[in-house]
Amino acid sequence: MPFGSSKKVHFCYFFLFLFQLPNMGSAHFFVNNVYSLSILSSVDFLFVSVPLLMLQNIFPYVEHFREFPPLALAGVSARARKCCERHRGGVLGCALTSDAYGARRSLNVKSPDVSRMKCVQWWLRRQRDDPLYVVVQFNDTESSVGIPASETFSRQLSENKVDHLFVLNIQTINSLFQFITLFQRSEEIILKRCQITSLQPLEGLAQLRQVELSYCGGGFSLDPLATCSNLTSVNVSYCPSLTSTEALGKLRRLKTVELTGCGITNVDFLRCCTLLEQLCVSSLGSLSSLSGLKTLRTVDAGGTSITDIGSLSGCVALEWVSVNYCTKITSLDGVNGLRNLKTVNASASSISEIGSLSECAALSTVRFLNCKRLSSLAGLGGLKNLKWVDASCTIITEVDALSGCVALEAVYLEKCKILSSLDGLCGLRNLKEVFAGHTNITEVRSLSACTALESVDVSYCKSITSLSGLVGLPKLKTVRAVGSSIPRDGRLEGCTTLDI
Fold first, then answer.
1. How many CA atoms lie within 13 A of 206 on its CB side?
2. CB 379 within 8 A of CB 354
3. Which of 397, 357, 356, 405 is nearest to 374 (CA)?
4. Among its keywords, does the record have Lipid metabolism (predicted)?
């Protein structure tokens, strides 16, 4: 066979197998065992120009590689490499992603992997369409080598007019001053288990958008962050030596604040943060300072000592509220009429009624697990978007209020000891899951018209005597009735899981 013809055959062999990737269990098996991609280095492209154009069609199949696309495939062309960079594993640490700030190319480097930086630098100099974010991890033993190498890498990128920013993940460091040069080009700074006495090296960082501190000691305040005018997110968790958070009130672009395990008892300083969208706190005594924050979407005050949520009434954009384990809360008054509210978690609180939810038209998920005083679900009646209800371990006796919740998909009623009927679920055609174990129900006939039902659990329901109401449900897969006295029903034997 002529030399040129042989190469055409080789390429076609490679090309046809690539198109089989969707049908193969492992793309790596193909690359490593079926045929070596290295043959491309010897292909006469005069003979394969048409197949190379067709090669563009195989790029969506890159996702079939489980870990990393092979370098040989990424090396076919610049287009191929970009496609491989969109794979979750990336190429040599480079990955193309999208987030709230748009499309970006990230380079992940574990300090002091200087060789990784050098081997991709030529490529980065040629790819300027997407912003570059260099993600570098430092710890105390590696910083002496990694910091100078990263500074040199940054300087070389700048000399070649490659715009870039750093995401610095710094662990077990005792001083931040050695990072001052890198901080000037940092968008995100993560400090974990560091012993620090001051955040002064972070003063005036114009590029900084996100700061995260966790398990840090040494006694420090957040005052230096007040000069970082573009800061949008601050997360401080389990830093018991934190002395002051007042500076956050000066950050007018702040959108996300998380203060957990730090002993912070009030957030009055957030009154002026008019763009705030998400708040997570763990030690508050009151939410009064949140009143009127029009952009606030998420509030997590679980485990705090707050007594009410009345201050949330003016937070018109609110979508998600959690007050679980707030044992002093007896009412959900404050969320009345919040038209955007989608999720409420009040598990293990002291609420006794939920009438305040009746006007929350967008509500889709509610969780009242272990609310020992809750005796009725009346506030949920007629909520057309409600999909998920957990009222386990409450003292409800019936679920009639759910009869108008036409979108309902899952109901959890386990260990509601005095619940005697599921009649309120009758005819809910979107209902997929019912968990009613350890209750006092006597039958499941009310589920007979729930045609989307897939899973039912009535384990340890001592009073139930028959599962006949489930016969004929076309999508039913799982039935559990362990610990009951129900006889096996041959008509249910088609279920994937039948545990009686």
1. 0
2. yes
3. 397
4. no
Token readout for 430 is: 């979107």
Q: What is the largest CA-CA distance in the chain?
A: 87
- Give the integer Cα–Cα distance in Å for 287 and 105: 40
| Chain-centroid distance, C-alpha 183 | 27
How far apart CA 202 and CA 224 sit, in angstroms, is 6
Instruction: Report the mean per-residue pLDDT for the chain.
Output: 83
Q: Are 208 and 186 in contact (CB under 8 A)?
A: yes
- The helix/strand count (H/E) of the chain reads as 8, 21
All residues at 6 or more sequence positions from 280 whose CB lies less than 8 Å from its CB, including other chains? 257, 258, 259, 260, 298, 300
**152 neighbors 134 (Cβ within 8 angstroms):** no
Per-residue pLDDT tens digits for 426-469:
999 999 999 999 999 999 999 999 999 999 999 999 999 888 88
Q: How many CA atoms lie within 13 A of 35 on its CB side?
A: 15
Residue appearing with tokens 């249910």 = 492
Q: How many residues does the chain have?
A: 500
Residue with tokens 């009623």: 413
Contact residues for 83 (Cβ-Cβ < 8 A; gap 6+) = 59, 62
**What does the pLDDT read at residue 491?**
58
SS3 letters across 199-210: CHHHCCCCCCCE
Q: Where would I find the beta strands (DSSP E) of 180-268?
A: 186-192, 210-214, 220-221, 233-237, 242-244, 256-260
Kindly report the number of other CB atoms within 10 A of residue 2's CB atom: 7
**CA 480 to CA 87: how far, in whole Å?**
41
Which of 213, 158, 216, 164 has its CA nearest to residue 185? 164
Helix (H) or strand (E) holding 365, with range, is strand 365-367
Question: Is omega for the bond preceding 112 within 30 degrees of 0, making it cis?
Answer: yes
Domain spans of the chain?
A: 63-171
- pLDDT for residue 361 is more than 50: yes
409 vs 465: CA distance, rounded Å: 25
Tell me the pTM.
0.81
| Contact present, 355 and 376 (Cβ < 8 Å) | no
Beta bridge partners of residue 211, listed in sequence order = 189, 234
What would you report as the CA-atom Rg of the chain, rounded to the nearest whole angstrom?
30
The 3-state DSSP class for residue 344 equals strand
CB 352 within 8 A of CB 374: yes
Task: Identify the CA nearest to 60 among candidates 35, 38, 78, 87.
Answer: 87
